[in-house]
Protein: RING-type E3 ubiquitin transferase
Amino acid sequence: MGERSCSQESQCLSSIKLVPQILCSNLVESGQDLLESDMSIKKLVEDLESTSMETQREAAAKLRQLARHNVGNRVIIANHRAISLLVNLLQSTDFETQENAVTTLLNLSLDGDNKAAIVNAGAIEPLIHVLWTGNPEARENSAATLTSLSSIGENRVNIVKSGAICPLVELLENGSPRGKKDAATALYNLSLSRENRAMIVEANAVCHLIELMDPATGLPDKAVAAVLANLASIPEGRTAIVNAGGIPVLVEVVELGSAKEKEFAAAALLHICINSRFCGMVVREGAVPPLVVLSQLGTQRAKEKAQQLLNFFKQQRRANADAGSE
Structure:
């Protein structure tokens, strides 16, 4: 390679000198943007306390958008003590304000540190109020917020004690497709705590879950199948599933559902067979062929559940044969 000319060296040196200036300029601009964002958010939070309903509505709507995708904005909004003010607005008689407030809280709850702050601000009962009284989108987002909060185990008991199950079941029955999914997902999280399962069954959730799980008429979703698997682990749940016509639906899901739906349906059937007298009904509904396929082609957990069921069927046949030969 040849030597560079003096002109080239001069241009190179000039470029090197410019680098710190560019970096410094970018840092200054970034700092200014952050300051402007902080100041604008602070003003919006102050507007949440306005005596004007229109001002409150607009402020909540803007905060909703700011918190939607930007993690930094969520931190700033929480730091300006917006959470308690948004919780207060859940009781607003203006449906749009209520919707914007609950959706902002949903967006804020995506940040782990904010979950505790939302619960500590007394949000659970107001969120349940929105579940009962809000417009369709507000109810959906209230259910989604409860789902987010109930990802922390210690919150589940408080959510149930505050009366969340009945409005969630009502949303499961009468909500929009998205609302039904949000309700099912919230109920799934709540059902992770065993002490909540009987209350979910008592609220008549099982018949609505079975309707949603039916591939022919429902809205199949892995959360629905997961709730049924959890409820099948208690006697009341197994009885409710059978009485609601759930066995043929679960067998059909094992055959036609998604990979996760098949896994949860197999888990539910395993509970029903091992812990109750309904094993013969499961076999008569044609469970064996799809379980054989699932034992070979399903997820690892689905394979295990399917094989356990098939082994149990064999044991039952042998026991019946032995009893008949005596």
Notes: Residues 18 and 24 are 10 Å apart (CA to CA). The mean pLDDT is 89. The radius of gyration is 28 Å.
